[in-house]
Amino acid sequence: MDPNHYRFRGVWRLAAPAPAVYAALEDVRSYPLWWPEIREVRATGEDRGDVVIRALLPYRLVVGLVATRRDPVAGVLEVIMRGDLTGWSRFTVTPDAAGGAGSAGGAGSRVLFEEDTRPGKPLLRRLALPLHPLFRANHAVMMRRGRRGLAAYLANDGRRVEANR
Fold first, then answer.
1. In 3-state terms, what secondary structure has residue 107?
2. Which residues contact 123 (CB under 8 A, 6 or more apart)?
3. 39-54: buried (b, 16+ CB within 10 Å) or exposed (e) per residue?
4. Cα distance between residue 150 and residue 32, in whole Å
5. Which residues on neighbouring strands pair with residue 78, listed in sequence order?
6. Coil, helix or strand at residue 64
7. Within the chain, where are the H helices?
8. Averaged in consecutive runs of 10 residues, what is the pLDDT profile of the chain (165 residues)?
9. What is the pLDDT of residue 129?
């Protein structure tokens, strides 16, 4: 096992239609409005930008994102990452016949999140072996808060969410 290699996979079920969820996820500039760990987004060109991330652990990551796939029909958003994290990340948004929590009539969505990454930051690479479980737990908390924030943001008609900050 390479302690510097991380594969993440998770599912978010949301009480909003798939097109609305896809649109919110595609608008990376709005992430700081609903995702507490995404502190800042800076556009650096068409289909590229930097995100500043700070989760529970006392370090800040700056990750450059380059969009490699935007497919609203398939519901797929994919980026490659460079900088403090390298690799790729993907959201796949599909209608959820069962609906999300609290949705009426099955108008919910299922969001599959997948990521394959390695730390680019030298300190994180050095700490990978002893802190691997802590890094994974930190990521899990970030994703849980992201799902909760996105659900609140969509329910609040795209306005800033302060509840989970």
1. coil
2. 59
3. bebeeeeeeebbbbbe
4. 10
5. 69, 90
6. strand
7. 18-26, 31-34, 122-126, 128-155
8. 92 97 97 97 96 92 97 98 97 84 69 97 88 92 97 89 59
9. 86
Candidates 126, 152, 121, 130; CA nearest to 53 is: 121
For residues 137 and 5, what is the distance between their CA atoms, to the nearest angstrom?
A: 15
What is the Cα–Cα distance from 132 to 64, expressed in whole angstroms?
22
Dihedral of the CA atoms 62, 30, 36, 12 (nearest 10)?
Answer: -100
Q: What is the pLDDT of residue 59?
A: 87
Give the tokens for residue 159: 């306005």
Closest CA to 48 of 64, 37, 71: 64
pLDDT, residue 97, reads 76
